[in-house]
Amino acid sequence: MPVLEPRAVIDTNEARCRDCYRCVRVCPVKAIRVVHGQASVDARRCLGCGTCVRECPQGAKRYRRDLPKAEALLKTRKFVAASLAPAFAGAFEPWALLRLPAALRRLGFHYVAETAVGAAWVAQASAGLARERKAPLICTACPAAVGYVEKYRPELVPRLLPLVSPMMAHARHVKARFGAEAGFVFIGSCVAKKAEAERPELAGLVDCVLTFEELADWLRDQGIDLGHCEESAFDEVPSGSARLFPVEGGSLATAGLASGPQDLGAAALSGFEALRDGLGMGQEGGVQLIEPLMCSHGCINGPGIRSEENIFDRRLRVLRFSQAPKSGPEAAATRADLSARYQACPPSPAMAFSEEQIRQVLEQTGKGRPENQLNCGACGYASCRDQVLAVLSGMAEREMCIPYMRRMAEQRSSLIMETSPNGIVILDRDLSILNANTAFEKLVHASSLSGQPISQYVDPDPFEQVASGQVALYDAPCRDEARGLSARLIAYPLPNEDRLAGIFVALPEPGEDARQLRRLKDETVLQARELQEQQVEMARQFANYLGQHTARGEQLVKKLIKAVESEAGPAEGSLGRP
């Protein structure tokens, strides 16, 4: 089966990405690549779980919106079905649940049913297969969990149930019942479903995947208020307990393999940590079936739900709805094919790095010694070694290490302080010297100043004014002939540090200002006299030239008139003059 390049379902709004690395910390498989401080999702590694979307404090991570695709489908297909995932009972208010079918029909859908219809069929098939196998089988309803096994736990692929998810089961049912040209739109809380719909072997079954958030936006844009919609029955409703699928243990209860925590025939895992640790369990206690859900507490906590409700309130809504009378005809057993195939597809060939390569990067970040490897996790990785491996594989940057960047900042600060030609001194609130650069030591003709009161070297009054809050910034000349000090002092408090800073800019020695001013005046007078002489000489030469030019011109005109008169004589018809 060919493995195609995956289409990204999650991307990054770079304008909002702020170097917090939270997405790196929460991503269960570290599918976030950081380049020049910008975090982006590597589609080959991504599970589409949407954890980064839900957790990003700046809203920089976003999943792909497919509303235009759904709208186009309604315009181009004669028949389009809407499949509503069972988590809708937790995503919407109880009074709105039976109004959703009418709202979806107003949007243009011809068939509206619960995806739990397909969940019931998958659960029944799962129970039958689980009883025939010795090793525990893994449910395949959660596409993020399936993707994790295929990409990162390939040894467990044989344990995956060879069954499609409820979404795909329902899609096959609709296509079989209404024809292959029927459109099928799935609406749920899961972002990973968008990627599942594009699996090559399942292409064409699900035409579009929307989240509950997208549905809410669509209804708002079309001016459809659920409060103004009538209650209406679904075209098909599920049998049994299939409405429990979106909560932890729901699929197992539907399959009849677990009715409570005392049952040992199945294991429900929700949240990545439980999923990671529990998928490889053996036959201990007679476990036949493992239900993995990537989102903690199940699909009612998916990233596509826009709800302020407490997660336990959502769960309670689902439980109550599962016990409510069914509103619509119950779906019969399907004749659609429920089989599926899964295969290992690691995101990329494993990259091996030598211990020397790892050691070099550790040393570059100041963590060459084991005691300097803090394993603080601020960068998003569990250990310094994991971060180094990510750096070497091109997924991370050295600058993501917060302790390393702090040391770099301190070193730059120290370098600036030591190379500054101005005297710089840092004081505590008691006006004792914490740090002073070489330029300040030269200014006060002393060394080894740390711990000494500033009053031993300069007048402390400016610093006392700043420390007491009398002035926020002191900026004035500071002269002390007895100490040989001549400088301009700029003193100010350091925010959030409870410290004071003083910068001494050297001034000319007393009397030097007057000497410089006198020298400048003398030079100015001299230059003015030279300019005056040049201007007078230029004027004289110009006048002389102009006079010579005028005299020569006058002589030339007289000669010209005389020549014309001597040659022409009196003109014809003219009156003679005496």
User: Major sheet: size, sense and barrel closure?
Assistant: 5 strands, antiparallel
How would you state the average pLDDT, rounded? 86
Tell me, briefly, the overall form.
elongated
Sheet-strand content, in percent, reads: 5-15%
Query: Using only CA atoms, what is the Rg?
Result: 42 Å
Total strands: the figure is 16
Q: How helix-rich are the residues, as a percent range?
A: 25-40%
* Count of discrete structural domains: 4
The helix count comes to 19
Description:
This protein has 578 residues and is an alpha/beta fold. It folds into four domains: 64 residues, 2-Layer Sandwich (Alpha-Beta Plaits); 259 residues, no CATH class; 53 residues, no CATH class; 87 residues, Beta-Lactamase. Helices cover 38% and strands 14% of the residues. It contains 19 helices and 16 strands. It has a five-stranded antiparallel beta sheet with strand order 13-12-16-15-14. Helix 12 links the parallel strand 10 and strand 11. The longest helix has 57 residues. It is elongated and about 105 Å long. The N and C termini lie far apart (129 Å). The relative contact order is 0.10. The C terminus is likely disordered.
